[in-house]
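SAMPLE LOG
Freezer: B-3
Tube label: C17
Construct: single chain, 304 aa
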Amino acid sequence: MMRVICGRGSLKWWRAGTLAAAAAVLALVPLNMGGCAGGGGIGSLGSAVGGAVGGPTGNLISAGSTATEAAAMGPEQEDALGQSVAVAVTSTYGLDTNSKLQRYVTLVGLTLANTSAKADGNWAFGVLASDDVNAFAGPNGYIMVTRGALMQMDDESELAGVVAHEIGHVLRSHGLEAAKNSKFAKALGQAAQASEQLAAFGGAVDATTDVVMKKGYGQPQEIDADLVAVELLTRAGYDPNGYVRFLKKMEAGEKSRGAGGVFSTHPGVSVRIKKVQDSINKRGNPGGATLPERFRRYVSKGPA
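STRUCTURE (predicted):
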């Protein structure tokens, strides 16, 4: 898969140097689909974990080489855990083969991450080849959105809202906390032999992946990520109401499908909608860019 490397400064065309001008620039300036040079380790998910678009990824991370690095299960070892979770997710779903779509989602993600306190951190974004409606955040900046979720969206502000929510999980270290709270974390810190470390690390990866992909985070963590999303969306110049619109679609889907339906890994949608709307209202309902035309340019809802 292609590598999209964008340094913090290279996105100034998007932000126009000031947050106040961001909405106007978002509406007027097309995405640079040729990529951009410079910057440190941020880019597309396939390259970040060493894989090709749509290709097998199960053997891309050597658990033996990362087990020792992750033994302390602290922030310094977060990337080993994040890469392993990303490999597990992409091995399950695969990466979408549309390179322009991958770049588009990556640039939206980088624009949002650029407004955060970790603008120069590790960020990797990818679209999963799945019709399920979901999105995932692995520790240390590995963000994944399913093709099915994109099909439920109508404009770029909705996409930005979902991505900003997942970025919120990363900024709040929810994935790392899940690993540290697993029964394997203590064993990992006490393990002396490499084989023991490998087994304990594998268990921690499995536990974190289970939270990210199946169980989901608790409602307090989801609301926490939602509130971060509103802040990031406002800073980047997007209309945060786009995220509310998407959450309402998810709520309608849950009601029509019943328990275990769409976005079932993200609990309490009705409560979250109220919290998000309250946060937007407290900011004076600032509005912002929605960009439906640009979204439709890169996200095709027709037959593949």
